[in-house]
Amino acid sequence: MALLDIRNLRVEFDTAKGPFRALDGVDYTVDAGEVLSIVGESGSGKSVAMLATMGLLPNTATITADKMEFEGLDLRTLSAKQRRKVIGKDISMIFQEPIASLNPCFTAGFQLEEALKVHTSLTGRQRRERVLELMHSVGIPEPERRMNSFPHQMSGGQCQRVMIAMAIACAPKLLIADEPTTALDVTIQKQILDLLMQLQRDSGMALIMITHDMGVVAETADRVIVQYQGKKMEEADVLSLFEAPKHPYTRALLAALPENATGDRLPTVSDFAKSFAAEEARA
Amino acid sequence: MSDPILKVRDVTREYVIGGGLFSKPRVLQAVKGVSFDVERGSTLAVVGESGCGKSTLARILSMIDPQTAGTVEIDGLNIDISKTGISREMRRKVQIVFQNPYGSLNPRQKIGHVLEEPLLLNTDMSAAERRDTALAMLEKVGLKPEHYGRYPHMFSGGQRQRVAIARAIMLKPKLLVLDEPVSALDLSVQAQILNLLKDLQDEMGLTYVFISHDLSVVRYLADKVMVMYYGEVVEYGTREDVFDNPQHAYTKTLFAATPDAGVEAIRKRVAAKKAASAA
Known about the structure:
The complex is a heterodimer of chains A (283) and B (279). Chain A is an alpha/beta fold and 283 residues long. Chain A has helices at 46-54, 80-86, 98-101, 108-119, 124-137, 143-146, 156-167, 186-203, 214-220, 238-243, 248-255, 273-282; strands spanning 4-15, 18-30, 35-39, 61-64, 67-70, 73-74, 91-94, 174-178, 206-211, 223-228, 231-237. In chain A, 39% of the residues lie in helices and 24% in strands. In chain B, the strands form two sheets. In chain B, strands 6-7-8-3-9-10 form a six-stranded mixed beta sheet, sandwiched between helices. A four-stranded antiparallel beta sheet of chain B has the order 2-1-4-5, with helices on one face. The termini of chain B are far apart. The relative contact order of chain B is 0.15. Chains A and B meet through helix 8, helix 9, helix 10 and helix 11 of A and helix 7, helix 8, helix 10 and helix 11 of B.
């Protein structure tokens, strides 16, 4: 049985101009220990889908799905209280802007401890030990000193490490990473991706990696879902996606990589728009 | 024949930091004696990690901050704004495009005004002339005349970056400093902006100083590449030299860190993972 099983997910937002459909009937399944990548440009609904799973969308959003289960638990009917028991413990998430997602008023150690305080029954001393252990495992140098640092005293890469430590604090079964390295440098990006992959391998958790960077997909994913304007364009395992992309949009995304530039100009997605229309008509 | 539009010699920039109640101020050298030339109509890419001084260099070249020591010569003009200030003539030579198009446009200013402001400050054009120039510029960067009266929040990230580029080239500068202009953008939008920059360069004979940490973009756009590390230039050469035969350890690290989207690399990774899970 899949760890996360979502069928026909639709998300609509109420706007002044009437309902806006951000996500239109997409299926997601993730097995335990699998790395799934969701790729698409902004507005493709890739973040919205995972925020809906987490129950983090504002109440202007209407979420409907035929099925939305995590380990057999129906996420649609959970009360807020029940949901809090799952979210942050069995499913956790890291976000794009590490510096913005930490609370500037509290130290890194305090914020890490908070996750443990809510979800475990450890004593204060045990929690402190666990915090040090976690900071050590995500590769923060001098954890004893860094525990008492505020987010503004740390670099973006270190803040992202703290976010990751917080996300894995309760040994989640599913970690959702929403563009975890977009705000970071290439060298730091490499370190963070390596860290995520190593944690994933060691703990056997499932990982959903949301990104717009085909390079990140190539380095991390087992299976890939390509989304465009709220619809799923293609789903394939990573090798066949890069070897033989089926959908024209996927081909467009791969062609837009600057390293694949053949001539003087980069092909853009709009160059491929005609072939999408043809594809749509056939479907 | 070499015809450098930009000559930079031993430029240093120091910041004094700290000096709180109990601590002595200390001097941080963000840029330590950097020298290079940029040929007219070519693109120099400056690569390095955050904190290596590449944005400080951009601020010096675009006359936002003065250098502490050294000389900068742009199109024959000696630039040292701490001593001489900035004349209209100097302003017209260099313009800058920033990384984040959400932060670099005033939310209360219509696009038309954004574009006209450099003309208002630096030229003697009449209002009608300014308007015509702005409308023509909108078209040039791939926007529409009806965008003239709109506000920045009505635009997407890619469109905003087009506006920022349009604003920068309103004065027909010789040199355009691009401080990570595409790193906040999606892949497909990034390709559009890079194409636009290439077209504009061909059309207007612009010279670019292109700051980036994305090597694949650099490879696509640059003629020469300069790699900075802790305020110093550790590698400087033509694109082919730097990419085919990197010398410095930091450049090699940078190449190793860049994700490889090649099919071979993926096949290797997938095979390694399969082997690990079988064992």
